[in-house]
Amino acid sequence: DHAYSDDEAHMLDVMLMLQAEHGGGNNSTFTTRVLSSSGTDAYSAYAAAIGSLKGPKHGGANAKVGAMIEDASEKICDWEDEDQVADYLTRLVRGEEFDGTGLIYGLGHAVYTVSDPRAVIIKKYARGLAEAKGRERKLHLLENIEKLGPGVMRDVRGVKKPICANIDLYTGFIYKMLGVPETLFTPLFAVARMAGWSGHRMEELFC
User: Fold this and answer.
1) Bridge partners, residue 107, by sequence
2) Candidates 2, 41, 99, 109; catalytic one
3) Using CA atoms, how far apart are residues 140 and 137, in angstroms rounded to an integer?
4) What is the pLDDT of residues 80-100, one digit of tens each?
5) Across the chain, what does the average pLDDT equal?
6) Which of 25, 143, 151, 198 has the fewest Cβ atoms nearer than 10 Å?
7) How deeply is 20 buried, as exposed, middle or buried, from its count of CB atoms within 10 A (0-12, 13-18, 19+)?
């Protein structure tokens, strides 16, 4: 219905490309291969992959980031004050805020440590869309979490390995600015991954 501008449609294309399967070692792709190795049907393999993807420590993290940001927005008086943001993150890592897990959703990755190249790209698009829609303050809050979170995790939990933002820190924010319902976050992610899952399944069965 042409409700989206060309730039917004292009951004969705970019999101789908950046969220595509990338390497085979991630949880949902591994799930596809494990089920395929048993000889089960494609529907079962892909359903299991989707079930894996929607977990909050995998693809479901983008929705968790959104909920975490809303919680932070309510409890941090001045989003521009780095001390206030760091105080909230300290309580979060101690399990005293949000869902009590001690996780800063959107930070950390099993493979990417110094930088997640997908997050670097999507952040640029997020900035342009935030400026167009008057959401710069919320974006700056995300950037402060990206900036301060690794130091808090080091100081509070003794995490020594490098930690960077992953793509999930910004994808939920972008989807919300585009008006995409949260219930579609994981289905869109699954659409982006389906070609890769299919490739891995075929390799498992026929190679």
Assistant:
1) 165
2) 109
3) 5
4) 999 999 999 999 999 999 999
5) 94
6) 25
7) middle
